[in-house]
Specification:
This protein has 141 residues and is an alpha+beta fold. It has 6 helices and 5 strands; from the N terminus they run αβαββαααββα. The chain is elongated, with a radius of gyration of 17 Å.
């Protein structure tokens, strides 16, 4: 009987992400996204009892572009999702994929000790998680 390989969210997450204040305009956020070659923004907590926010390009498309709003007059707090649905760092990537499917997510931050330690998207799940599962099996580790 073969040993089941476990690849965790922490093993595949992107550790680089953009974290900004909710007062930032969509225009400023788009410039930051372009510079960092990213498609997700984490909105910082305002205080210790607050929650993190999340802004995706789809949020901007639906709430700014489709509604013909000016990106220099819309703040991120107006278009963000808050509170964010997040992953624990030790969750198996198989369960991460099921979690994404059930909650209709495309990206989620990984939170440990009330701090964001990374971001997981379908790209990481498939290109890193699935690959590592089969690479490890193929190498006989």
């Amino acid at each position: 009987m073969s040993q089941l390989k476990v690849i965790r969210a922490r093993d595949i997450m992107k550790k680089a992400y953009i974290e900004v204040d909710g007062m930032m305009t969509v225009e400023e956020a788009l410039n930051a996204l372009k510079q960092q070659n990213s498609n997700v923004i984490i909105v910082k907590k305002r205080h210790v009892d607050d929650a993190f926010g999340l802004v995706l390009l789809s949020d901007i498309a639906h709430q700014v572009l489709a509604k013909d709003r000016s990106p220099d007059r819309v703040n991120l707090y107006e278009v963000m999702t808050k509170p964010v649905v997040h992953l624990p760092p030790d969750m198996d990537v198989r369960y991460c994929a099921r979690f994404f499917e059930r909650l209709n997510l495309s990206v989620a931050p990984v939170i440990e000790n009330d701090l964001i330690v990374g971001i997981v998207s379908y790209g990481e799940l498939v290109l890193r998680g699935l690959y590592k599962l089969y690479q490890l099996e193929d190498e006989g580790e």
